Amino acid sequence: MRSQISGGTDDVELELDDIQSGALHERPSPYVGSYLLLRIDDRSAGRELVRRLIPLVDSGRPGVLPRHGAWITLAFTYRGLEALGVPQASLDSFAPEFREGMAARAEHLGDIGDSSPENWEQPLGTEDVHVAIAALSPDAERLEAILTRARTAFEQLPGVELIWQQDCYQLPTGRTSFGFKDGIGQPAVEGTDIAPTNPHERPLKAGEIVLGYPDETGELPPMPTPDVLGRNGTYVVFRKLHTRVAAYRTYLRERAADRRDEALLGAKMVGRWQSGAPLAVSPERDDPALGADRHHNNDFSYGDDPRGFKCPAGSHARRANPRDALDGEGSVDVRLHRMIRRGTSYGPMLPDGVLEDDGVDRGIMFVFAGAHLKRQFEFVKTQWLNDGIFIGAPAEKDPLVGSSDGTNTLTIPQHPIRRRLTALPPFVVTRGGEYCFAPGLRAMRWIAELET
């Protein structure tokens, strides 16, 4: 199936039957899922694994439910492609960041201290991680059915080992461990027939997400060779992020005058109320009806709030996607840094009102998909989340996910005197992550049939 889109003066067609569905389509809500990492010890067994998994992977056809009741995404690290015998000339044609891997770029990304690779959960960040499988389903029964088929594919292969698994889920409310509704504000992509939820934002050029098509610059993004390997693929970043929920709640409680003020401070840090209602639309109080309305909870901009009286410029949501707030900067095109972002919870929620850490591991599995690792994920992480130069506050970092040593601050503009939150501790700790490549279905067959 091809989907025709307008690409400037030319017509561009997305080869939807060749693109993995995970990069383009929203997940069901609620859902349960599992991430699996495999190591390949035998090249022939690894290729046989790919051959067996291909029938489980759904393409990006719009409006089609998965054939197996669950969505499977298959991706490979650089070491994984190497272990499968992909020719060196092809390996060298991948993006430098992908070839280096996330652990090697940890300091650049701000993964230091407790978040440094030496503290990561094994085997994340090691050369043992070769294959990543993500399985998601609306219910546990169908998830287990697809996982059983996936396990059958590799358990019978002595040269392939399951080395890590993380179960995950999304609550019916869509809220994460911090209590805020997530998954709002995804960009639409040309050619997918998925309409933007923000009428102020036109769909991204397909080449921003999928390789082989023009991107926002009008050019084709650099693509791995040969064409069959790179075309219709996308880079995938996944990170396991432990959330210090008790520390977050305690911080707000100690600085708030009352519960209403506590909720307001939390909203100022995030840029939204817990319901998902944006501060840009409802700056004074939460609006649960707005938060639940997917046709309106992303319908806003920041251009009318340049000083951040409604939504602080340093809040998490505004940093991650400044929208039109940088239109006057001249040198910043926000669209060049947009990407698909998926957040999935893991571990049990800390019960409401509990301020003591129970020692349980909980947090978010963050997944990003795009065609440009450096100017999408890495740019947003280093320039917008870990730095405050672009908002005129060089010393400030993202109050939730920014690299923090306990001295971070957040400025909250208000009349008559601004408010400043100081000594923000690290509320999120990186437990590990990987840079992966999710090839098209033809590329998977090409890999499975390699004879090198």
| Mean pLDDT level | 92
Q: Ranges with pLDDT <50 over ≥5 residues? A: 3-10
Q: Note the total helix count.
A: 13
Largest sheet at a glance?
A: 4 strands, antiparallel
Distance between the termini: 31 Å
The best one-word shape is globular
Across the major sheet, the strand order is 4-5-3-6
Structural classification: alpha+beta
Q: In a few lines, what is going on in this structure?
A:
This protein is of the alpha+beta class and 452 residues long.
Describe the structure in your own words.
The protein has 452 residues and is of the alpha+beta class. The chain has two domains: 2-241 and 438-448, no CATH class; 242-432, no CATH class. It contains 13 helices and twelve strands. It has helices at residues 43-53, 78-83, 88-91, 96-100, 106-109, 140-155, 227-230, 245-255, 259-270, 288-292, 316-320, 373-385, 441-448; strands spanning 2-7, 10-15, 31-40, 71-76, 131-137, 160-170, 234-243, 340-346, 363-370, 408-412, 419-424, 428-438. A four-stranded antiparallel β-sheet has the order 4-5-3-6. A four-stranded antiparallel β-sheet has the order 8-9-7-12. A hairpin with a 2-residue loop joins β1 (2-7) and β2 (10-15). α1 (43-53) runs antiparallel to α13 (441-448). It starts with a strand and ends with a helix. The relative contact order is 0.18.
